[in-house]
Amino acid sequence: MPSIAKPAVLHPSAQRNELGLTLRDYEGSMSTLCAGCGHDSVTAAIVRALWELSVEPHKLAKMSGIGCSSKTPAYFVTGAHGFNSAHGRMPPIATGANAANRELLYIGVSGDGDSLSIGLGHLCHAIRRNVRMVYIIENNGVYGLTKGQFSASADVGTKSKKGEANRMAPIDPIQLGLSLGATFLARGFSGDKEQLVPILKAAVAHRGFAIIDVVSPCVTFNDHTGSTKSYLYTRQHRIRATETDYVPPATEILTEISPRGETAVTLHDGSVVRFSAVPADYNPSDRLAVAKFLQENAADGRIVTGLLYVDEATPNIHEMNNTPAKALTSVPWSKLCPGAEMLNALQEEFR
Amino acid sequence: MKPTDVQDPNYYHKVVDCQWGCPAHTNVPEYIRLIAQGRYTESYMLNRKSNVFPAILGRTCDRPCEPVCRRARVDTSPVAICRLKRVAADLKGEYGHLLPPIPARKNGKHIACVGAGPASLAVANDLMPLGYRITMFEKSAKPGGLMRSNIPAFRLPGSIIDEECGVIIDMGVDVRYNTPVPSLRGLLQEGYDAVFVGTGAPRGKNLEIPGRYDTDRIHIGIDWLESVAFGHIDSIGERVLIIGVGNTAMDCCRTSRRLGGKDIKVMARRPRDFFKASPWELEDAEEEGVDILINFAPKRFVLENGRLVGMDFERLSWDVQAKKSQTLETVFFPCDDVILAIGQENAFPWIERDLGIEFDKWDMPVLDPTTLQSSLPNVFFGGDAALGPKNIIWAVEQAHQAAISIHNFCEGIPVTDRPPNGMNLISQKMGISEWSYHNDFNPAPRQKMKHVDLVERFRELNVEVELGFSPEQTAREVQRCLNCDIETEFTPKRCIECDACIDICPTQCLTITANGDEAELRTRLSAPALNLEQAIYASAPLPQTGRIMVKDEDVCVHCGLCAERCPTAAWDMQKFEILISLAGTQEWNTALVPA
Fold first, then answer.
1. Is B126 among the domain residues?
2. DSSP-derived secondary structure letter, A114
3. pTM (2 decimals)?
């Protein structure tokens, strides 16, 4: 842990967002994670994405469970709401919170242990319910808090720090999500914020459950030769299947996109989006094709990153349940809970 | 960009803005740290090594270090570097045993110094420990030169001058007081191995306008201050006009205030942004009730029956850059006395022009600005006499350089062979997240110097106005220093590009990115590096991706968090010390540096 708090000093050319806030205003308390932990970079990417989107801190709820990953909500946006649940229980807590107040932005931060072992069942059902939230899995393939045992996302053949190889097949949250009907699936790498920040912004804008699986190396227990989740291995085996940038809704701009190389398009606010060619047959709305692409690349030992699948059509939890357009928290208590008489009347209907 | 060469002593030296900005390169962060540790004597001696007169400069320095202080770019006010120097001087203990030993056996070389001001004394300070015999000629009865005659005692008490000059003279300098040198030819004929001219800029500029010579109530600023300093003048009229708005003008108006002046006006030709006086000297004068009037150009002195009654001024209107003016009207200001403080000039009536010393069209000696040697090889210049009026700290630095030249000259080494500077770079790591320096950032504002109250300070001419910092103020002010000498030293081959340093840096100084031209690279950093005065560091290519680490030095607060968050110790905090060579690269100079 650092010896001092981060000095409250700004670079003279530090910029402000639409709310007049600087990047520093989206920070949280000092990280107590190991120096060099990928999770801290994910935190920094979240800070940047929220700052760029000018998210109002009091309109944000940070949700987490247990694990190194689940400590990270403490390290961004001190002014936000938050809930640190029991191990693996973040998805149902977030579902309940979202049901009660649909006007908040929910960012869940979990890990491969929290989501793919103890909390796997809860995760599956949150996906099915298409709860509107950003669900980040900081995936490092080991249980860092208990000194580096393999987790459920460890690849076959990856080696522990002592040299022992893992023999059980991994759970890939992206392939899992595809099979369960998830509506937003992306994979990032903590060492590449240029890719991760736009993915996070797109996930915030998504109207359903957005899973971002982030390869986030454990610098203490899983960054050695033989590990398939080290900084070096990830850099050597990663491919960027898609290029992601988030463009806020605005009037249409028409242009010709080159099938090869980059095409730059200037947006209404003067910023420039560069369109890069993706594999010619890649279609991020074709669930089957994406599954095939992922399986083939996984078999070849490649780590596919980018915004991989997106579906804006499937109804989310509120649409499926016909809930009011406003948050339940804004509905008067007498209407929300009409009393024993109404309950009795309701029950009479079923006798 | 090519990878930055941090082995070049100048790279990190430039990061230490104060030290780089100081003509004599005083190791400011280290002396402030020594004060923080209560090691005042060592702090004083570290100062003395480079600036020779810490107690004098701690009260009077022009402070070129402060405007460039990194703290000013971080929270508007620089560290009170100058007044902390005074703290070290005020609280120091015995230091005689720390001075360099003076060899009993001399080296056989005999140097003459003309003038006993800061330049000559600093030359003596550097050369006496090397075994030189020095004879110093001084026209007045006491040493100190313009430090004594032109800086009023309420800013710089005589006892302070006596002490710091005395230490050097006591090294065995043969000072001939009340002995002006009427002829350089005569001096050269006495057979000295070298002559150093440190006679200052002794002539105040005159103002040739009507009425100038029709009264004796018009005074030349520096001559008048000297007469006050030596007790020849002890009063002035109630209404005084000061012409000019430099630091001498400030000393004149404040001195007038103490000699009976009640209505004192400083008349400036141009607007305030173009004043020559240091802002703090202007503030001190205004605190004492002096009026500073802008846009008035002197036109003529007005006399009635042979008596000065006032002055006519043209009121001017300036363009934005204060280059062109228009006269609006003529305004009369009544007065009893006028003091002219519009600058100083050099004067060398005692140097014969056929000795081989070349003079330029401004009647200044032609010198090599590095060696300070004149066209007569055994004659050297320093201080205001050399390259025109500057200030004490420049005089000291020129004296150091002249002493090197004189030493080379006497040893038969070409004077252009300048001894190289060295550097030390030592890790400050004591353990995990533990450093041997205080790395926390203290948001305290700059401490305000306490002054003697306005009644008490006018009671006597020599009541020192500034009281010095209290222990509490000192404790707060030392913590404002950003430790710019503790450098972020980067080892590219250890970096795994985890981004931890970039994420933790409070001032967005760090970026890992593809290499490019410096100008282009500056635009695409975590925060654009717009301050072109400050370097950006570029590393060698990083092992995993071939990108480079870039650091914008501009507002790094040297907190060490990059090094604390680095999992591979690619970043380390290392104390940089530049080893400035002085004449003879004296052993005692380096041995003094505290571990």
1. yes
2. I
3. 0.88
The strand pair at B486-490 and B429-431 is best described as: unpaired
B356 and B402 part of one domain: yes
Domain extent for B504: 486-579
**Residue B453 maps to which CATH number?**
1.10.1060
Per-residue model confidence as pLDDT tens digits over B425-449: 999 999 989 999 999 999 999 999 9
- Cβ neighbours for A29, distance < 8 A, ≥ 6 positions apart: A74, A75, A78
Residue B418 lies in a domain: no
Q: What's the token pair of residue A102?
A: 């649909």
Q: Which of residues 135-154 of A touch B (CB under 8 A)?
A: none
The fraction of chain B above a pLDDT of 90, given in percent, is: 89
Asked if the Cβ–Cβ distance from A9 to B74 is below 8 Å, we say yes
Contact B506 A9 (CB under 8 A): yes
Whether the Cβ atoms of residue A103 and residue A59 lie closer than 8 Å to each other = yes
Measured between beta carbons, the chain B residues lying within 8 angstroms of A227 are none
Looking at beta carbons, which residues of chain A come within 8 Å of B431? none
CB of B468 within 8 A of CB of B86? yes
Which amino acid, one-letter code, is at A289? Answer: A
Which A residues 189-248 touch B at CB under 8 Å?
Answer: 190-191, 193, 217, 219-220, 223, 231-232, 235
Residue B588 pLDDT grade (very low, low, confident, very high; cuts 50, 70, 90): very low
CB-CB: which of B555, B561, B567 is closest to A6?
B561
The per-residue pLDDT for range A41-73, each reduced to its tens digit, is 999 999 999 999 999 999 999 999 999 999 999
Burial of A243 (C-beta count, 10 Å sphere; 0-12/13-18/19+)? middle
Residues B280 and B365 in one domain: no
User: Tokens 């694990």 belong to which residue?
Assistant: A67
Q: Does domain A23-243+281-321 have CATH number 2.40.50.90?
A: no
